[in-house]
Design brief:
The chain has 122 residues and is mainly alpha-helical. Helices cover 59% and strands 7% of the residues. It has a three-stranded antiparallel β-sheet with strand order 1-3-2. The chain is globular.
């Protein structure tokens, strides 16, 4: 696992750690079952505070990307099933909310495209 933290980046260090691990897990560079370094170990190797890495790990666990198995460590979770379920649920909630607001499908899709461009920088 290779992570690079850019201090001059606008993204917070914990977000950089979260995004890079998430991308590596999604791409298969970090296979399912791969054991991640301890919070302290990764923090030391990156020159970050342990709380920064712990925050990234908590976010990754919440997203279903990793799972903690107590004293056995932290591992890359099964390929995206939890993340896919959460994404589908969020999409359903958005669609229902857009309809309740009286927005037509075209306007709802345009709002999603704008939000995705803002987040992904496209």
């Amino acid at each position: 696992m290779t992570l690079k933290i850019h201090i001059d980046d606008s993204a917070a260090p914990y977000e950089q750690v979260r995004a890079q691990i998430s991308e590596q897990a999604r791409s298969g560079a970090l296979p399912v079952g791969y054991r991640l370094p301890t919070v302290r170990g990764l923090a030391e190797s990156l020159g970050l505070a342990a709380n920064t890495v712990a925050k990234a790990y908590r976010a990754l666990e919440s997203d279903g990307v990793i799972e903690t198995r107590g004293r056995n460590g932290t591992f890359v979770a099964a390929a995206g099933s939890a993340a896919e379920r959460e994404l589908a649920s969020a999409a359903q909630a958005y669609a229902e909310r857009a309809r309740r607001l009286g927005t037509d499908e075209k306007a709802a899709l345009a709002a999603v495209r704008d939000a995705l461009r803002a987040v992904y920088g496209e």
